[in-house]
Structures are given as C-alpha cells and as structure tokens.
Specification:
Blueprint: H1 6-21, E1 30-34, H2 40-48, E2 53-56, H3 59-68, E3 76-79, H4 88-94, E4 97-101, H5 104-117, E5 121-128, E6 138-139, H6 147-161, E7 166-172, H7 181-201, E8 209-211, H8 218-223, E9 228-231, H9 233-236
Parallel strand pairs: 1-2, 1-9, 2-3, 3-4, 4-5, 5-6, 5-7, 7-8
Helix pairs in contact: 3-4, 4-5
The structure holds pyridoxal-5'-phosphate.
C-alpha cells in the first residue's frame, strides 16, 4: 500500500510561494522528483502524492525502474546525468526528457537511435555556467562578455537543433554547491540571460524552458526564472 509523501506537499508549497514572490504562476514550474538511488517504493509513494516527473542519473537504474513502473499512467522519466555514448540507447528507449546534452556527438547518436525507434525526445542543453571544471556542459559562464564562447555555444545549439527526433526545450545547469545566496542568484540570473539571448538569436527554436534549482537552491532558481526544478534529498531524504 502506498503512503503519502508529506515532503512533496511542503516542497510544492515552497515552490508556489517562490513563484508568487517573482510574480510567476506556480503551474508554469514543473517539479522533477530526483529518485536516483532510491527504491521503487519511494517512487510509488511520491506518485500517489501527485508527482509525475522523476529524475534518474544512471542508465541501469533508469531501465530497471522504467520496466518496473510501466503500469503507472503518465509517469515521465527525466534522465538528468552525464550520458556515456555506449549507454545512450537506454535513454533513447526509456527517457521522456534528457537534461544533460553536453556535447554534439551524444545528441547525434541519440538522434539516430531515436529515429530507428521512431521516438522523439525533448532535451535540454547543459551549460556549465559556474565555470567549474568538474561540471559537465558547454562553457557558458562568460557568454555576455566572451564573444568566442558565445559563438561556439550558439553554433553547437544550432547543430543540435537540426537533428531529427530531438527537440531542444531549453537550457539546464547546476549551480555550485554550498555557494552563498548572492552567488547562486547571479549564476541563475546569468543563465536566464543566456536563455533569452539564445531565443533572440535562434528564434525558430522554441527553447523557453530552464531546468535549474535543486534541494538547497530551488527557491532562488524559481525567483530567477526556472521552469523545472530537480529536487532529490528534500523529497526522499539524504542519499546513502
Ligand atoms: C542529484 C541531482 C539533483 C538533485 O539533488 P538534490 O540536492 O538531492 O536535490 C538535481 N540535479 C542533478 C543533475 C542531480 O544529479
């Protein structure tokens, strides 16, 4: 028997209040519950509490959970982690969204696998806005001042945008861990600025979404324009 996940309601309430502070509508922000490392039962409980979007970052785990929960109507899988080429087929087959396009090659590979499966996949271009070398993603932290970085990024997005069976929904980023609020806010604001710039430069792309914000910073991300937040530990508890 599933049980209600109380944390889901608390998070939804905090999301709604952050949206309100920014003059935004709560319905325009999607909660992706990051269930990585957590058991199937936790996902069933969160689903019973109204969550439909779940995030995973390991392909074997995505495959196992997607197969086990295929009977739950409307459940959508978001693959949010770095994807290695040899595992891309699992994402092409099971994911409903992919947040971490961090190189043109992986997009090309997914595109051709999706074509064979006759599936489409909405994706996000991952941007390394924090400039940390350890983070995946296209360089983008200095887009406003560095025209070479900006041109390279726009060129890559353009190349990905013409691939069949992939649809670019927008940009995704991870803020630095444990940074002060002011730093987080400026990272998210920089990302929102980049998103507006991409839309202006590539008007045929309907890339309006922004996947940003996690357990410790989602309210700031929403205030700065996030349309999807990826929340794990605040819903499911700390990971072991
Ligand atoms: C794990 C993870 C999250 C969720 O992190 P929490 O701090 O537990 O909310 C969000 N996004 C990505 C890409 C992750 O890998």
């Amino acid at each position: 028997m599933e049980k209600d996940n109380q944390a889901v309601h608390i998070i939804r309430d905090r999301m709604a209040r952050a949206a309100q502070r920014a003059g935004r509508r709560a319905e325009d922000i999607t909660l992706v519950a990051v269930s990585k490392t957590k058991p199937i039962g936790d996902i069933v409980d969160a689903y019973a509490s109204g969550v439909r979007h779940f995030g995973e970052n390991r392909t074997e785990e995505l495959e196992k959970k997607a197969q086990a929960l295929g009977h739950l109507p409307g459940l959508q899988w978001h693959f949010i982690g770095h994807l290695q080429s040899r595992q891309s087929e699992i994402v092409a087959r099971h994911a409903h969204f992919f947040h971490a396009v961090d190189r043109v090659r992986i997009a090309q590979r997914l595109s051709s696998q999706l074509g064979e499966m006759q599936r489409n996949l909405p994706v996000f271009i991952q941007i390394n806005v924090s400039g940390e070398a350890s983070k995946q993603g296209f360089a983008g932290e200095d887009w406003a001042h560095n025209s070479q970085q900006r041109e390279e990024l726009l060129g890559a997005i353009k190349e990905i945008s013409i691939l069949p069976n992939l649809e670019i929904l927008g940009l995704m980023t991870m803020a630095p861990l444990d940074a002060p609020e002011g730093v987080l806010r400026s990272v998210f604001r920089n990302m929102a600025g980049l998103s507006a710039h991409v839309r202006e430069q590539l008007p045929d792309l309907a890339a309006r979404q922004l996947s940003m914000g996690m357990s410790d910073d989602f309210e700031i991300a929403i205030e700065e324009g996030a349309t999807l937040v990826r929340i794990g530990s605040a819903i499911f508890g700390k990971r072991g």
